[in-house]
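Writing this down once: the sequence line spells out the residues, with the fold written below as integer tokens. This is how one looks:
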Amino acid sequence: MFKSLFHWKVLLNIVIAMALFAGLVWLTFRWLEFHTNHGDEVPVPNVMNMKVHDAIKILDDSGLEYEVDSFKYDPKFRPLQVLAVFPSPGSNVKNGRSIVLKVNPKTWAKVAVPDIIDRYKGLAFNQLNLVGLKVGDTLYEPSIQRDAVLRIIFNGLSIKPGTLLPKFSTVDLVIGSGPLRNVQVPNVVGRTVQEAKKIIAQALFEVGIVEHEDGGKDESDIVYYQDPEFGALRDQGMQIDLWASKKTPAELQSKIQQLDDMYRPKIDTTLAPIQYNEVPPPTVEQKPVVQKAPVSASQTTGATTSSAKPKPTTTQPANNNAAVKTNSTTPQTTKPVDKPKPKKVVIE
């Protein structure tokens, strides 16, 4: 077995295999040196505090690539000024290496305007401050949404939520001041439903019931009746009901008359007005008050004594005629009535 292992042919094969392996390793390293430009290095130029355009030109001349990264805006430095370089200036890098430039942007980074429409003004102010936007003027206009944000204005133009603005920009807000009182109702009779809705919205009223004669919902129908009527005074924000049809108002006089009888009944002014007379309240007759004199002790004793006396009783004759005859013929003598003796009252 060992004789076959040390045979010259076997040893020759081993030597050839090792030579091939060493040759492959040498070729690999040579290829890597050629591919990576090993030993071919250039120093990073110093482009600190330069404008980004000048720094890019120098890097191109040196055969280096570049990447521009914007820092947060710092008003202490000039716009587009190179604030940092990586790798640092003076470092040796291979040709074609990418150099990162930290640049001061022209202005603050842009932020999206938050959705604050129809929000209470206090909450809107907080949301704008959180994203880095400032509130400038607050303009008030009549609206049924009191103290709610109606529009956002930037540089005199109305903008929508989501618009990108530079951080710390100033925006103006249009806020509702509440509805006006006793505003004249606009006339929308003869207009299409679509036009009527726009007119009502511009006058800051609300669209109420829209009744179509055919039961549909075609906004091209003509409005032939409205309630409240044109010229009536109402507060902003109240509803205006509409009746619409494909016919003209002149063709719907009977229907208009029915609606007038329902919503605008006429009052007959020819009748005499009803008078209401106030009836005075009944008077109660007051009896005169008799003031009694103060009663003394002796009078009290006499009153007590007199109250104790019995009342005399008189007997009437059974026949009045007989009594008359008796008086006319013979006089009758009446015995005096014995009065009871008064009782002594002792007052202690």
User: Anything to note?
Assistant: The radius of gyration is 60 Å. The CA atoms of residues 153 and 183 lie 28 Å apart. The longest strand covers residues 134-141. The mean pLDDT is 79.
